[in-house]
Amino acid sequence: MAAPRESQSTRSPEPMAAVAASAAGPGTRAPAALALRVVAECGRSKARACELRLPHGTVATPVFMPVGTQGTMKGVTAAQLDSLGCRICLGNTYHLGMRPGPELIQKAGGLHGFMNWNQNLLTDSGGFQMVSLLALSEVTEEGVRFRSPYDGTEILLSPEKSVEIQNALGSDIMMQLDDVVSSTLTGSRVEEAMHRSIRWLDRCISANRRPDQQNLFAIIQGGLDPVLRSKCLEEMTKRDVPGFAIGGLSGGESKEQFWKMVTLSTDQLPREKPRYLMGVGYATDLVVCVALGCDMFDCVFPTRTARFGSALVPTGNLQLKKKQFAKDFQPIDEACTCPTCQRHTRAFLHALLHSNNTAALHHVTTHNIAYQLRLMDAIRTSIMEHRFPDFVRDFMKTMYGDLGRCPSWAVEALESVGIPLN
Ligand SMILES: [Zn+2]
C-alpha cells in the first residue's frame, strides 16, 4: 500500500455540516476534523444513511467497524481489510499503549503508519480493557490505577494520559476515558460513574492537543436507569464534541433493557452528529439498532467467532467443523463476493479447521468481515432507496425462517419505530 495519505486532512471542506466549527462559529478555530451529512432518512423509523467525513477519507454509514487488537485484525492484513472495502477500523489503545508503546508508534508515523493503514482509525480509551482484563484495577477521581501485566509497575490511566496516548497513536476518532461499571449493576455506584464520566469528558476535551485532526467522542453512561441516562445525555450534549457513543450496554443486560436504553439515547442525541453504539455486532442487533437511529457499530464477535469455525450467513451461521460440511462443495455463501467464497468450498474449510491450519482462521475471518460490511451496505442502500422497512422484514424472514420466530424484543423495538413485522 502507499504511504498514509496525510494530505487528506488538509483538503478544503465541501459543503457539509462541519460539526465542531459550526458549533463554535466560523473562523473561531481550525477546520473541523469531522463532518456529517445526512444523505437519506427512513420515512418511518429513525434509520438514516450518512456520509461521515474524517481525516482519512469519507465513511458511508451505517457502518460496522472491525476490531483489531495489536494493530491489525487477527488473521487478516491491513491490505486485505482495505480491499474488502473497510474504511474505518478499531485500534486497541490498551494493548498498543503498553506494547510497543506510544513513543514507538509515534516514531512510526502514528498507528496509520505503523499498521500501514490508509483508512480511518478509531481508538478506545483503554479504560474498558483495564477494568475488564485486570483484576488489580482501581478507579478513583484521578483515573484508573492498575499494575502492568508486563512488568508489575503501577500505572495511572487518567483522562489526560488516555488522550495523550491516543494523540500519539493519531487515530481519527478517539474515545473519552469513562468510568465503566457492569451494565447489570444498580444503585449509587452507577450514578457516581455517570457523573464521573461527565467530569472526565471535560478533562479529555481539555487534554486533546490535536482537535483539528483527531475527533474526541463522548460516551453516554447511566446504566439501565432511564433517569440517569437522560441526565448524562443532557449534560454531555451541552459539550462541543464531534460525536457521541452509547456506552455501558451489551454487557449481560436483557435485550429488552438494551433496546430501550438505545432508543432513549438516540431520541436525545443531536441529528447532526454521529451516534456510535459500542460493542454491538450480531446481525439482528445491527438491523434493529439502525432502525433505532444508530450510525456506527463495533464488536469482536464476527472475528472471534470465525476462529471457532463459525461462518456468518443470512440464515445465521454455519459451524464449519461439523461433519455435514465434510463433503459440501459449495462456498460458504453463494451470494458472497469475498475472496474465500470465490475460491474455497465448505469441505476445504472443514478440512483445514480439522487440521488446525491457521489459514482456516484467515479464510473464515475474511468472510465474516465481508459479511458484516455487505450487511451494512445492504441496509444503507435500502435506506437510500426508501425501502428500509421492507428490507428489515426480508432480513428477519431469512434469518428466522418465519417472522413469527423473530425474537420478541426485536419485534417490540421495531414496532416502536413504526416497522411492524406481522
Ligand atoms: Zn464470503
Report on this structure.
The protein is α/β, with parallel strands linked by helices and 422 residues long. It folds into two domains: 35-298, Queuine tRNA-ribosyltransferase-like (TIM Barrel); 300-386, no CATH class. The chain is 41% helix and 16% strand. It has 17 helices and 17 strands. It has helices spanning 19-24, 78-83, 93-98, 102-107, 110-115, 127-133, 159-169, 188-207, 226-236, 255-268, 283-291, 301-306, 339-343, 346-354, 358-384, 388-400, 408-416, and strands at 17-18, 35-41, 48-54, 57-61, 63-65, 88-91, 120-123, 138-139, 144-147, 154-157, 173-175, 215-220, 243-246, 275-277, 296-298, 310-313, 316-319. The strands form four sheets. An eight-stranded parallel beta sheet has the order 5-15-14-13-12-11-7-6. It has a four-stranded antiparallel beta sheet with strand order 1-2-3-4. The protein has a three-stranded antiparallel beta sheet with strand order 8-9-10. Helix 8 runs parallel beside helix 9 and helix 11 (283-291) runs parallel beside helix 15 (358-384). The radius of gyration is 21 Å and the shape is globular. The chain binds zinc ion (ZN).
